[in-house]
Amino acid sequence: MPENTTAPARAMRLGVAGPVGTGKSSLIATLCRALSGELRLGVITNDIYTDEDARFLRSAGVLDPERIRPVETGACPHTAIRDDVTANLLAAEDLEADFGPLDLVIIESGGDNLTATFSPALVDAQVFVLDVAGGGDVVRKGGPGIARADLLVINKTDLGVHVGVDVERMTREGRSVRQGAPVVALSRHDEASVRTLTGWVRDTLAHYRTGEHTPVDPGPMAPHFHTGQDSEEPHLHTHAHDQDPAHAGHSA
Amino acid sequence: MSASPLLLALLGDARLPSGGHTQSAGLEPALRAGIAPAEVPAYLRSRLRTVTMVEAGTAVVALAVAANDGDLTEVEAAWAARTPSPALRANGRRLGRGYLRVLQRLWPGPVDAHARTWSRPVVLGLLAHRAGMDPADVARLVGYDDAQTVAAALLKLEPQDPLTIAAWVSELLPNVEKMAGKVAPLRLPEQIPAPGAPLIERWAETHDTITERLFSA
Ligand SMILES: Nc1nc2c(ncn2[C@@H]2O[C@H](COP(=O)(O)OP(=O)(O)OP(=O)(O)O)[C@@H](O)[C@H]2O)c(=O)[nH]1
Ligand SMILES: [Mg+2]
User: Fold this and answer.
1) What ipTM is given for this predicted complex?
2) Most B CBs within 10 Å, among A84, A89, A94, to test the B interface
3) What's the distance, CA A138 to chain centroid?
4) Omega before residue A101 within 30° of 0, cis
5) Does residue A245 lie in a domain region?
6) Count of domains in chain A?
7) Rounded to 5, what percent of chain B is helix, strand, coil?
8) Among positive and negative, which fits the CA dihedral B172, B174, B177, B183?
9) Is A113 in the pocket of ligand 1 (CB under 6 A)?
10) Separation of alpha carbons A181 and A179, rounded Å
11) Alpha helices in A36-158 (DSSP H)
12) pLDDT tens across B99-149, in order?
């Protein structure tokens, strides 16, 4: 049973995380384009070196530029969305004070690696974005965002044929890693997929408003099965994974 | 009424979630303006004699005013008058909100409706009053935090042996003590020292307008 059934006083905060270049900013632009007619939106970007993301989104013309705010993270994109969320919380507060009330504040994390996810102290729900260009294997590598973000997006499906990735299989594997939790295979060129994405955002917002949505931490590490064991329960490991694509293959 | 020395450790710890990781204490624009990493010890001492002394003096006075149930907006005005850069004032007030979150969670109680607009040293003074800290300790905290902020940012901007930088901070501690001793007796807004650091102020202004930066200020 949900514990909190009173209507929340503030906008829902939706985090968008995922490796560099998988299409987080583009996905946010897509959401703004599709939803700004019906929802009052604000966007916060966490760039690492520049305010590139904020500028990209402002120039996309999908939202009043004033509603898009960059936050500096002092070269600590993880810290800003997990250990010390102060800068992001203040930016969200400011957006709501300046334009409030708002329905949805979308926060883009600084593009990082597979381990970066948002703290539930900052966001109510989060999307983890992968793209097919990163290779079909990435999903199987798991990680907290892939396995337990509220939504996994497999982006740029239009590129599948060009990079030799079987999109359907990648999506299926995503569902299995996530034990059935939602996966959207997305391309901004595919209207139906965009509708699925916006539908998920609307549903999540509706649940948030009725107090039925509980923010969850995807966790710093992924639980996984030991192959060869036939236990039904996922086996929770607390050791660090060695699957970070930033390091894989470069060590030794 | 004297607080545990560990309180100073808690508040001076970079892991305190108050938004400190977004700060370089002016180092990022200073390096960009051409100061060499080897000059950082001198940069630290210059800050301690100028902007940091203003911060520490403000925090001490805010503590005294809060203890007498006085008007902290006057202390805020005195700080603003001594902080000519609008970018630094905006940044100081953003940091103040971060510390206000710390204050409200760790030492809950009613706060003035204006508290959300107060700068970090004013909020720190209020916090120090609530937490039962000495004036000298709050001044030490401001001095130490400033030095460690520069040190941590240097490791991101111009990495070198972290122990060299830790040694610089350690060597600065007597200067921090001296500064704290100087401002600890202050009680009134007009007593807050008003030294200027025009280059630091100017660099902060430039930093505020550029699009490529790691740190807010
Ligand atoms: N083909 C194709 N390209 C896409 C799609 N979505 C985004 N892209 C492209 O992918 C590149 C990266 O997109 P961004 O939205 O900037 O990615 P990001 O994840 O925000 O990047 P960082 O913020 O740098 O981590 C850009 O060149 C986009 O045009 C898509 O659906 N299909
Ligand atoms: Mg981006």
Assistant:
1) 0.88
2) A84
3) 16
4) yes
5) no
6) 1
7) 70, 0, 30
8) negative
9) no
10) 6
11) 52-59, 77-81, 86-99, 144-148
12) 999 999 999 999 999 999 999 999 999 999 999 999 999 999 999 999 999
Tell me the per-residue pLDDT of A123-147, one tens digit each, with 9 for 90 and over: 999 999 999 999 888 998 888 999 9
* Residue A96 is assigned to a structural domain of this protein: yes
CB A131 within 8 A of CB A154: yes
Per-residue pLDDT tens digits for B55-65: 999 999 999 99
C-alpha B8 – ligand 2 centre gap (Å): 39
Lookup result for tokens 């040190």: B151
Residues sharing a CB contact under 8 Å with residue B150, sequence separation 6 or more, in sequence order: B24, B25, B26, B27, B40, B43, B44, B47
Residue B48 CA to residue B29 CA, distance in Å, equals 17
Quick check: is A90 in a domain?
Answer: yes
Record the pTM: 0.87
Spell out the residues 6+ positions from residue A205 whose beta carbon is closer than 8 angstroms to its own.
A12, A39, A103, A104
C-beta separation of B55 from B38 below 8 A: no
Rg of chain A in Å (alpha carbons): 18
d(CA B179, CA B45): 10
A240 within some domain: no
Map residue B12 onto helix, strand or coil: helix
Do A45 and A92 meet the contact criterion of CB atoms below 8 Å apart?
A: no
**Spatial distance between the Cα atoms of A157 and A165, rounded to a whole number of angstroms:** 9
pLDDT tens digit string along A190-243?
Answer: 999 999 999 999 999 999 999 999 999 998 754 444 444 444 444 443 333 334
Extended strands (E) in chain A: 12-17, 41-45, 68-70, 104-108, 125-131, 151-155, 183-185
Tokens representing B177? Answer: 């003590």
Of B15, B97, B211, which is closest to A90 when you measure between CB atoms?
B97
End-to-end CA distance of chain B: 35
| Domain enclosing residue A94, as ranges | 12-214
CATH no. for residue A89? 3.40.50.300
- Both tokens assigned to A183: 């996966």
Distance A142 CA to ligand 2 centre (A): 22
Domains and CATH numbers, chain B: 37-207 (1.10.4190.10)
Whether residue A83 and residue B101 make contact (CB cut-off 8 A), yes or no, is no
Reduced to 3 states, what is the DSSP secondary structure of residue B154?
Answer: helix
